[in-house]
Write a structure and sequence with these properties.
Layout lengths: L1 H10 L1 H7 L12 E4 L18 H7 L5 E4 L2 E4 L3 E3 L4 E4 L5 E7 L6 E5 L7 E2 L4 E3 L2 E6 L4 E6 L1 E2 L5 E4 L2 E4 L8 E6 L8 E4 L2 E5 L1 E5 L2 E7 L2 E5 L4 E3 L8 E7 L2 E5 L13 E3 L7 E3 L1 E5 L6 E2 L3 H5 L3 E2 L3 H7 L5 E3 L9 E2 L3 E4 L9 E2 L3 E5 L3 E6 L4
Parallel strand pairs: 1-2, 2-5, 3-6, 4-7, 5-9, 6-10, 7-11, 8-12, 9-13, 10-14, 11-15, 13-16, 14-17, 15-18, 16-19, 17-20, 18-21, 19-22, 20-23, 21-24, 22-25, 23-26, 24-27, 26-28, 29-31, 30-32
Antiparallel strand pairs: 31-34, 33-34
Length: about 375
């Protein structure tokens, strides 16, 4: 993935020369434009006379404007939003952006920010109520490519759906991705659905952001990859909380850095990962790459005790929130806390013993006689 940001940067160099303009100040009186499937780009862009394309509406808008997009399907590809705008759909099942992303390292549906000016301030920009349904055979292509910052208010992506339409063994679809930069951040991602992706999210760099309350169903590799694989471009101050991930790691890739549910790379810092529900395929780990500090702040929820035991490290601890009714054997040392006197049917495997205390169960190795 290191190639990703660097190649994109060079690919868009020409665009940077042609369009490297400073963002104008946000308009005092925001205008509202409308886009409809039966509209025309020759229209005035009013509710009664809407535009036809999203690209045209973005071009006509000035900072602070709102673009309302009616129910319908729209072909949208490589539309760059490098000023403060609000894109408001009629609902993620009603307003649908379609695209066929075929060109490696360059095809995107939307670009939030500027392809040649990373970290551009687009404070107040939001994308909401839109479904992204796209095929993706070009490597490292995404529905939203984020290159910006929100210095006075976060950029928001909420209540959208990201649906990959390519066969799972071939899809290159990513939902949201970033290139390498020290200037990218201030992003809020909440209440979205991601389905049938390669990676739902892949961040080469990101700071001061939150990923909360999203649903992920089906990825080839990670659900969320906060790469942080170079000290020059770390990922920090990111909160990942209250997300639900299932059917993660369909490809059964060997390296856990690309097959876990949530991965945080070695140069990440000051991140919080808590209250996420993760269900993995192929016995892959729900998370990987966490530093010890991150583990202390991490809570991962599992549907069964067996899943939790498989994921916890030797000597770790699990908190039981319900009774365990599945019979299986445990062959690692750990503690199972039960604040409400939950019971278990699990037993200690060969060479181990299970002890019950008032507020916990403990599995330890049998002493050698």
């Amino acid at each position: 993935m290191k190639r990703y940001g660097k190649i994109l940067a060079s690919f868009f160099a020409a665009a940077a020369i042609a369009a490297a303009l400073l963002a104008p100040a946000v308009a005092a009186n925001a205008a509202a434009y409308y886009v409809g499937p039966n509209g025309s780009d020759e229209n005035a862009g009013t509710q009664e006379s809407p535009f036809k394309t999203v690209a045209h509406a973005v071009t006509k808008s000035t900072p602070g404007d709102i673009i309302n997009i009616a129910e319908g399907k729209y072909e949208v590809k490589n539309v760059q939003i490098d000023k403060s705008l609000k894109l408001v759909g009629a609902g993620r099942e009603k307003t649908i952006f379609t695209a066929d992303l075929t060109v490696d390292y360059s095809d995107m549906v939307l670009i939030l920010g500027h392809v040649g000016e990373y970290g551009k301030d687009i404070s107040g920009t939001s994308v909401s109520g839109i479904g992204f349904e796209y095929t993706a055979t070009g490597q490292q292509t995404a529905a939203i490519y984020y290159t910006a910052s929100g210095k006075t208010s976060n950029v928001v992506i909420k209540d959208c759906a990201f649906i990959g339409k390519t066969a799972q063994d071939k899809t290159q679809a990513m939902g949201i991705a970033t290139p390498y930069s020290t200037l990218i951040g201030n992003l809020t991602i909440s209440g979205n659905i991601f389905k049938d992706m390669k990676y739902a999210m892949y961040f080469n760099s990101l700071v001061d952001s939150s990923i909360t309350g999203n649903t992920f169903v089906g990825t080839r590799y990670n659900g969320i990859n906060i790469a942080a694989d170079t000290a020059t471009y770390p990922c920090k101050e990111i909160t990942v909380s209250g997300n639900k991930l299932s059917e993660i790691s369909r490809a059964n890739y060997e390296e856990e850095a690309y097959s876990s549910g949530i991965r945080i790379g070695q140069y990440a810092s000051d991140n919080t990962v808590t209250n996420n529900e993760i269900h993995m395929l192929n016995d892959k780990k729900p998370y990987s790459g966490f530093t010890q500090a991150a583990k202390l702040k991490t809570e991962v929820f599992y549907a069964t005790l067996k899943e939790a035991v498989a994921a916890v490290e030797e000597g770790g601890a699990i908190t039981l929130l319900m009774n365990n009714t599945e019979e299986f054997s445990i062959t690692k040392t750990l503690e199972m806390l039960h604040p409400a006197e939950e019971t278990i049917k699990a037993t200690a495997g060969e060479g181990y013993e299970l002890s019950a205390y008032k507020t916990k169960y403990a599995v330890s190795k049998k002493p050698v006689k």
